[in-house]
Amino acid sequence: MSLVKSESSAPIADAFKNLKPLLHHDQYPDNNVFNGKPYSEKFFDILKVRQNLPVYAQREEFRTKLAQSQVLILVGETGSGKTTQIPQFCLYDGYAADGKLIACTQPRRVAAMSVAQRVADEMDVKIGDECGYTIRFDDCTSDQTQLKYLTDGMLLREATFDRLLSRYSVIILDEAHERTVATDVLIGLLKALLPKRPDLKVVVMSATLDAGKFQKYFNGAPLMKVPGRLHPVEIFYTPEPEKDYLEAAIRTCVQIHVAEPAGDVLLFLTGEEEIETACETIQNQIDLLGKRVGPVLVVPLYSSLTPQQQQRIFDKAPEPRTEGGLPGRKIVVSTNIAETSLTIDGIVYVVDPGFCKQNIFNPRTRVESLLVTQISKASCNQRAGRAGRTRPGKCFRLFTEESFRALQEQTYPEMMRTNICNVVLHLKKLGVEDLVHFDYLDAPAPETMMRALDLLHYVGALDDEAELTKIGDLINEFPLDPQLAKMLIASPKHGCSEDICTIVAMLSVPPVHIKASGEKKIAAERAREKFKHDDGDHLSMLHVYNAFINNKQDPKWCRDLYLNHRSLKSATNVRDQLVRLMNKAKLPLVSMKPDDPYYYINIRKALCEGFFSQVAHLERNQYVTVKDQQIVTLHPSTFLNTKPEWVVYNEFVLTTKQYIRTVTAIRGEWLVDIAPHYYDLRTYPEGQTKQTLQRLFDQKRFAVAAKKNESK
Q1: Closest listed residue to residue 539, CA positions, set 573, 494, 507, 580
Q2: Cα separations (Å) of 150 from 82, 112, 193, 470?
Q3: Burial of 75 (0-12, 13-18, 19+ CB in 10 A)
Q4: CA distances (Å), 176 to each of 214, 411, 425, in order?
């Protein structure tokens, strides 16, 4: 069904008809169709680039297919321009008429922000006006916004408050092949919503999609394909498996710089620590080669970098040291964020070790870990495609061809490998009664569903009939994990809601302590020690934030103490929003004086309100997680330099050992007071922890009985 457009959309639609052939000022309307201002020189420069994108040639095909169907599956190879152009095609065709919005979801915050900025430049408007973005704790939109980029999680949150998503005329689900939990749930919700909203258009986009599966799911929706790779890419494999992929990756990058013609390099690694190590090592090894090779610019890319740091990936390669000398080269070392979400021009060589980090949830042990895993064939092909953008390229796969053939075809859906507590809560809020028979694209494992229901019941979000409670409704008001939200909701009764707002804000932003290397490493560690609290990491975070505020958020103060100013500024913004949500929920904002003997005790009790299930007990000089009986070690980054009997932790990290990170000391008696339903000894595994808990429950009973006798 074609969307009916009002007369107010006609000027924009008419203006776009003339956009393709027009390149120069004298051929183009004087004023911008969105804001009435004269077009800038930059607009025309970008326009030339846009018209060379593969998707541009298929605008009429897209327009026709979208008009004829409510759902369109679009497979556009990397670099085709689909993410920036398809939403604009919808905009210029008048789908944003009558105050409606066009939404384009992204699985990553970085992508939503950077693509929105690029599209705002293409439209020649200010970011946040006609084109904006919404990510968690950052809403850069206004009443003028017609085109909005947002994370899939934020659109899912909107659906809990507006089940018909009535603000939107077109919803574009981009990078659907990544199969994030939020995208999969949105796909299910939109399928159910389409009969109720015949005016709504849905476009499911991806670079490497199992198109047949999506077409079948949407009852035979039409498919549109857009080419992307402009040049052939030669693939190389290793003859034997590499023992150390990081060392092999560094070696390959150096060899490319020494032996291959000019052209930038893109190396894929799994995380921040690996990337920083690789950047430093590559730079040092190439520096040792001196004037035998050209200059090099090595640039990292991962999500916790500031936007300014991320923009360095678009810098040009360095010029030759002397006129006519050896050319310079740029080497970008990135997580899989550069696989689909961002396109970097100038890349000719791709180095692919074949790994990424994924969240894996084990429902039997209730442990969620960020693990290094092999990527799929689809991801391998995505990465290789990055090399063929500007000229014929090369992709060096640091594994054998036989290993490639053994990889799974598509990325394993996140729904089937992660904790789905938030999903269950959202679906309950959306009125989905039968969670088992909801129309999932791929259903989660029954055991994972049961664990999610269990935890939500323990935090009080669901009752015995698995119905949403008042606490569950309140938890849904906060864009947080249920445990963090429960901690906030319970904090006023401990007199520390102001402080818990601060701690939750600090847990919601990238790490604030900057890692330094070389000579600066000792100075950075000394600076970090200044914020130490003997009872643990959550309280140390509180110290950092309070000191930042007391020093008037001074960037120089942050630099001197190796603190990430941007992360701390983000924490202030997050905290402001949490305070607004607390006020909206009519939850009192209170705090005790820091010199009160119960100040830190009450904060630690409030931590237990949300994270009573993430507790470890010291047994025979080693920590064991409650119920699951996993032997764990305190992460080296912790501020704790003693071994308290009980600790609460924020995350479980599985690397060479099983670590618990962001840890604070608590007392066992608080657990039996706050969560007796969770520590039900009838179902508790035998061991030293059970014996200790039994003593604590006995002490509590004796104390209650003694109090009753006194009152008599």
Answers
A1: 507
A2: 16, 6, 20, 29
A3: buried
A4: 10, 11, 22
Looking up tokens 């969620």, which residue turns up?
A: 368
Residue 181 C-alpha from the chain's centroid: 12
Tokens describing residue 526: 């000394």
User: Is the predicted pLDDT of residue 8 greater than 60, yes or no?
Assistant: no
Report the alpha-carbon distance of residue 178 to residue 155 in Å, rounded.
Answer: 17
389 closest CA partner among 122, 104, 49:
49
Q: SS3 of 148, please?
A: strand
* Residues 20, 39: Cα–Cα separation, whole Å: 16
pTM value surpassing 0.85: no
From residue 72, give the alpha-carbon distance in Å to each of 64, 68, 214, 572. 11, 9, 10, 41
| Half-sphere exposure at residue 99, Cβ-oriented, CA atoms within 13 angstroms | 3
User: Torsion over CA of 525, 531, 535 and 537, rounded to 10 degrees?
Assistant: -70
C-alpha pair distances (Å), 102 with each of 106, 150, 178, 492: 13, 11, 21, 40
Phi, psi for residue 397 in degrees, rounded to 5: -90, 125
Give the residue among 193, 221, 46, 20 at the shortest CA–CA distance from 120. 46
Residue 605 contacts by C-beta under 8 Å, 6 or more apart in sequence? 494, 666, 670, 674
User: Coil, helix or strand for 298?
Assistant: strand
Q: How far is CA 138 from CA 147, 169, 576, 580, 677, in A?
A: 16, 23, 11, 14, 37
Residues 439-453 as b or e (16 or more Cβ within 10 Å = b): ebbebbeeebbebbb
Cβ atoms within 10 Å of 308's Cβ, excluding its own = 8
CA distances to 45, 375, 660, 691, 697 from 676, rounded to whole Å, are 66, 42, 23, 15, 9
- Tokens at 699, concatenated: 């002490």
Convert the pLDDT of each residue in 652-677 to its tens digit.
887 778 899 999 999 999 999 999 99
Q: Decide: helix, strand or coil at residue 565.
A: helix
Is 363 in a helix, a strand, or coil?
A: coil
pLDDT at residue 411, as a whole number: 81
Q: Residues 243-262: pLDDT tens digits? A: 999 999 999 999 999 999 99
Tell the burial category of 634 from Cβ atoms under 10 Å away from its Cβ (0-12, 13-18, 19+): buried
**Cα 404–Cα 418–Cα 383 angle in degrees, nearest 5:** 30
Output the CA–CA distances (angstroms, integers) from residue 89 to 123, 124, 409, 652, in the order listed.
12, 15, 32, 44
Check residue 28 and give left, alpha or beta (phi > 0: left; psi -120 to 50: alpha). Answer: beta
DSSP label at 177?
G
